[in-house]
Amino acid sequence: MKHQDVIRVVGPETARMLELGHPWVVADSFTRKWPHGSCGDLVHLSDQQKRFLATALLDPQERVVARVLDRLPVQITRSWLVQRCRTAIQLRQHANLTTTTAYRLINAEGDALPGITVDRYGDFLLLQLYTAAWRPHLKLLTDVLQELLSPRGIYEKQRPHNTQQLAASADTKKYGTLLTGKAAPPRLEVRENGLLFVVQLEQGLHTGLFLDQRSNRRDLMQRVKGKRVLNLFSYSGAFSVAAVAGGATHVTSIDASARYNEMARENFAANGFDHRNHSFITGDCLTELAALSQRSARFDVILMDPPSFSTTAKNRFTTRGGTSDLIAASLPLLTSNGLLIASSNHQKVDNADYLKELRRGALQADSELRVVSLFGQGEDFPYPVTFPEGRYLKYAVCVKTDYSPLTKQNKEFI
Predict the structure, then answer these.
(1) CA 231 to CA 248: how far, in whole Å?
(2) What per-residue confidence (pLDDT) applies to 333?
(3) What are phi and psi of 237, to 5 degrees?
């Protein structure tokens, strides 16, 4: 591989992080002095004393300019890649997948293959590249996956850089490409926790099912029997389907996209649930919460799983700051001792900061939230203890009590 014999020297802080096991080299004054290299080259990393630190995959135009593949000098060969993929597949024996055919097989840094994910959807595989550095090695990777797993087909889902700016209509466009094998049906049916969901491997930015919430949907099913449930940012209705399966008496799903609500109805139908017994509202969540409050609507469980960033005609939502407003608007609709379940996949907001957002929202609503469970992503989304960024998903199950520990005067200092 070109430039493989050229050593890339990293600064003392990066060297320390690499020695602690972190898999990234972030662009800095040292990397800007590196000799020219092509995206996808293998490079040897060393400290200023010329001590070898790791073999990494180069992506010189990105913020993460190199991702560690191994702490030894290696090359991306078929045998090396087979060993990494086999180890990842074997790790899935720790996940409860007995009634599931849609799950993550390779979780990037969590499976020592940084910058690439591979998901199983029934008899098909879907991979995504989080760095273009894997592009030169894509054919070898698909050959290895075909050899180990014999899927009917392997797809790649493109990841455009400007997903936040893309219009909602982007999910009607084709972002998936068949790399090898036979094509999947446009609407592919998969199973999760014994429930059926329809996914799309070619069309849209996403498939229609976020696999990292599987274990949390299973948990929800145990909490909602006989309850009235409100699902905010409901997307394709996976949590709503789980709530109905768990015995919820009525589920209200709110999303800004009419198309997503139609996908939710399709998922209801796939499981034999009559969507006419439940409510689907198309609109901005904060606006619809205000409307529900005016109608004195009440719910026993309110769940919110917003994207990190979303924009509607009336509101712009971001995890930082927006979460507290969403909590404050939701709590008046929640019965006393009801469950508020708040989730976020924002990688740059850790658990402590996220709980602060929940606290701000509870205080605005003159309520108290007591956290009874705090979960993350499922077992098929592992992450190294040396890579805290890999623990991105936050899923807080809270109980509402109508008590505020602060006086109105003290709230001014929050």
Answers:
(1) 12
(2) 98
(3) 80, 20
Alpha-carbon distances, residue 225 vs 58, 342, 374 (angstroms): 51, 19, 21
Q: Report the side by side order of strands in the sheet with 176-181.
A: 102-107, 116-121, 124-129, 153-157, 176-181
Q: In angstroms, how far is CA 216 from the centroid of its own chain?
A: 12
Tokens of 83: 């060993």
Q: Any residues with CB less than 8 A from the CB of 310 and at least 6 apart, and which? A: 233, 256, 316, 317
- What is the three-class DSSP state of 75? coil
Mean pLDDT, rounded, for 110-134: 97
The set of residues, in sequence order, having a beta carbon less than 8 Å from that of 258 and lying 6+ positions away, is 282
Contact 319, 344 (CB under 8 A): yes
Q: pLDDT per residue over 33-84, tens digit each?
A: 999 999 999 999 999 999 999 999 999 999 999 999 999 999 999 999 999 9
Enumerate domains of the chain plus CATH numbers.
7-70 (2.30.130.10), 78-185 (3.30.750.80), 210-411 (3.40.50.150)
Whether residue 167 has pLDDT greater than 50: no
Tell me, what amino acid is at 103?
Y
Does 221 score more than 70 pLDDT? Answer: yes
The pTM (predicted TM-score) of the whole model is: 0.91
Q: How far is CA 64 from CA 3, 87, 412, in A?
A: 18, 25, 40
> What's the Rg (C-alpha) of the chain?
23
Angle between helices 78-91 and 138-149 (to 10 degrees): 50
